[in-house]
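ingest -> validate -> predict -> emit
validate: passed (alphabet ok, no gaps, 313 aa)
predict: started
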Amino acid sequence: MPAVIEATGLVRDFGDIRAVDGVDLRVDAGEIFGFLGPNGAGKTTIVRMLVTLLRPTAGRALVAGYDVVRESHQVRRAIGVALQDAAIDPLMTGRELVRLQAVLHGLSKGQTATRGLELLERVGLTGAADRLVGTYSGGMRRRLDLALALVHEPQVLFLDEPTTGLDPTSRVAVWDEVRRLNDEHGTTVFLTTQYLEEADQLAGRIAIIDHGRIVCEGVPAQLKAAVGGPTLEIDVDEAHRDAARETLGRFGAERPARPGHLAIGLEAGAAQMTDVVRALDDAGIAVRHIELDAPSLDDVFADATGRRLEGES
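emit:
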């Protein structure tokens, strides 16, 4: 498949701070590519460079075949963008904003009317089309922002943390629309997120970024399989932590755990659980909570960085 996004040695400095440190990326036409990492890892900075809002300090990036610095105008015509901090006028209606976006992209009156109705219906806002956007919920605003990004039928859609702050129902509605866009229209989607489930649900391929660098990349199922056995995690009293760590060490290698917990890789999985529980009991260790989880993207992140993504602020 041809690449629609290519970045080589991408760097961005803010004074003495290097936010992006030599990133290489390739996204093929028609895929949903997930860009996963904690807050401050460099995800949004990379998106802003790819959509021409920031100039790279070094390196080169092509989007839809155009250089993001030398051919920024052509890049903007080829992409749709829904950023975290999108400015949507609260004193306009949803219909007016879609119409304005269509005019800015040079659509005819007939195209504007047809496209506006189609998009508002697609994102479930037909009933609220003539309400002021200031009265919309957070989920409605996100869906309107998605409609605005799609007015000109972009070749590539950039979604930067599209479901941050949304309730579960609104989040699933956004996921469904992203899948439909990709399935029915072949739209290439570049999705940045800090939500493990979101990346797992939507992305056919992911890259994980930490401190401005790509730490691993690939198909989620393959990355999870490479981690090894499931993770056994326990919660014990602080006074028993060292003894619990020593006991667990007889069954598997220690893995990064959430604060206050201990975790190991348990290669035999559930078949070994009885032995572990018996050993902890024989050692006089009171376990407050125990769970066994199949390898997840959080395990992939932990394996690559030595800490958990879940719970990162």
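The mean pLDDT is 91.
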